[in-house]
Structure formats: C-alpha cells, structure tokens
Amino acid sequence: MTATAGQGLVVTRPGFFTLLQDAGRRGVMHLGLAAGGAMDRHAWAWANRLLGNAYDSAALEITFGNVEFTSELDTQIAVTGADAACTVNGEPRPLWSTLRLRAGDRVALGVPKSGIRSYIAVLGGFQVSRGLGGSCASFIREGMGSLNGDGCKLAQGDHLPCLSGLAPVANRKVPEGWRPDYKTPLSLPVILGAQVERFSAATLETFFQRPYTLSPQFDRMGARLKGPALAVTDNTLISEGTSLGAIQVPSDGQPIVLLHDRQTIGGYPKLGAVTPRGLDALAQRPPGTEVRFSPVALHQAQREEHEFLSFFNA
C-alpha cells in the first residue's frame, strides 16, 4: 500500500468551511495551544470506525456542506454527521455507511437539512503530515495543521493524499439507534465546577431552569448564549487554565461555552463544564437553537466518556 502525489481526492468545490481534523493535540496547553480536533467526535469517530481506520485518523470536517471532490483512485469513504444529500456521480448515496469509489468518481454533499457539520473519512485515513502534538488538526488562528501545515481551510484544487492498494472493508452502516437526530430539543449535561460557590442558589436555579439561545457568535473557539443574565459574586479572577466545555460567565452575565480552539487561559468565573458528549450535540446545532442545561454527576460523565473511548478503541 502506498500514498503518492497522484493518488487521492481532489477538491473541486471546497464549500464554506472545510478542515482536516483528527483527535487533536495532546500535551500542548503549556505552550498556549488548545487541543483542537473534530467538533463532533461522535460523527467523526463513526466515519473512521466504518472504514476500520485507527481512531486518530485524519478526516474532513465540513461546515454547512456544499462541497465536491473527485477521486483519483479506487477506495472507500464514509460520510457521517449533518443530514446533507450525498451523491456519487449525481446518484444519491446513503449517509452513515461505507461507500465505494472508483477513479474519476465525483462525490458531492449538499447544504444540510439538519445538523451543520459533516465528516468524510477515507479508507486508511488521509495521509497528511502530523506536526506538534502528533496532530494534523487544522488550527486557523495559530496557523497549524491542515494540508500544508498552515492551518488553512481547504481550497479548490487542493489534493488530499490517500493510501492505494488497500483491501476494501465489507459494506457497513451505523445502526439507527446510534444515529443522532439533530432536530431534537437540546439539553446539555453540565459538571459543576470549582467556582460554583460564586453563583447563588437562585442564579443556579435560573441557569438550569430557563432556556438560552445559541447566538450567531458561535465558532470553533466558543458558543455565546443569549438568555437570563447570571449574577456572579465576583466576576474577575486571576487568569487560569481553561478546559474544554467550560462555561465562562463574563461581566454581562451571558454564558459562553468554550470549545476546541478556545483560548487556553481566562479570568472569568466558570460555572462548570459541558460534558464531551454534550459538546458533540452542540456542535451540530445552528445559531438560534434553544439550549437548556442539566446537572450531571462527575462519575456519570466519566463513565460515559470511558464507554465512548472504549467503544471506538481510543
């Protein structure tokens, strides 16, 4: 099996925002870098699992669809995530299943009807150089990862190297029960944090009983919410490290959920953190979505994360 310059997928329509993502970087926060990686790990991990790829294999994260690729080799792909029409040479193909491609085939994804992020994995994973932290995850702000190590989103004409000569895997599809419905009401589980004492019982009741709305200020760094303002006893802290999913409450009282490309330190009080599985669901909701929160015990969140990583052989 080989990966050569002439064997891969060619981007013929890059869409609005298409990135190469893997499981993200590890051990880099002391350098001021967030881990990055796929926003919806559930959909990303399933795309790789369908093809028998290693958990950390690089795949494409496509925001708002409208992309097209041409294959230069016989291979297989899997498309998961947002409910976007998928076609091969104009013929409809199912999502959340393996798809066979021949050299010259054109793969297209339309604009999603629900969900906002699609994932495309290829047999053997995209063969892209890995840099700091052993990752090729695209990090635009820091100019790291991606196809050429500059963090950029994909552009028309980009060539994505693939392995050729691999034995195909059997046709597979994800069971219906494992395919999320991105139109269902969104309730995010929250682990209360060490600074919860800065929020009164009345404030916590407001947070967990009242709905919030996902604002247009929603990107890979964070999700700003609109709703009842949360009062804080003292809304400034000495800057400290931030965690994935942390719910930061600035001076205006409007919570912000910190995401994969977040800043690594912050000085606002943090009420708690959305669990990793909750972040998967959040990553698929567009601005304007109503969001509610529910408290969850730390041991329950840890058990769910352990089950997820074990299932995907992480």
From TrEMBL:
<keyword id="KW-0547">Nucleotide-binding</keyword>
<dbReference type="InterPro" id="IPR029000">
    <property type="entry name" value="Cyclophilin-like_dom_sf"/>
</dbReference>
<keyword id="KW-0378">Hydrolase</keyword>
<dbReference type="GO" id="GO:0016787">
    <property type="term" value="F:hydrolase activity"/>
</dbReference>
<dbReference type="Pfam" id="PF02626">
    <property type="entry name" value="CT_A_B"/>
</dbReference>
<protein>
    <submittedName>
        <fullName>Biotin-dependent carboxylase-like uncharacterized protein</fullName>
    </submittedName>
</protein>
<feature type="domain" description="Carboxyltransferase">
    <location>
        <begin position="30"/>
        <end position="309"/>
    </location>
</feature>
<dbReference type="GO" id="GO:0005524">
    <property type="term" value="F:ATP binding"/>
</dbReference>
<dbReference type="InterPro" id="IPR052708">
    <property type="entry name" value="PxpC"/>
</dbReference>
<keyword id="KW-0067">ATP-binding</keyword>
<dbReference type="InterPro" id="IPR003778">
    <property type="entry name" value="CT_A_B"/>
</dbReference>
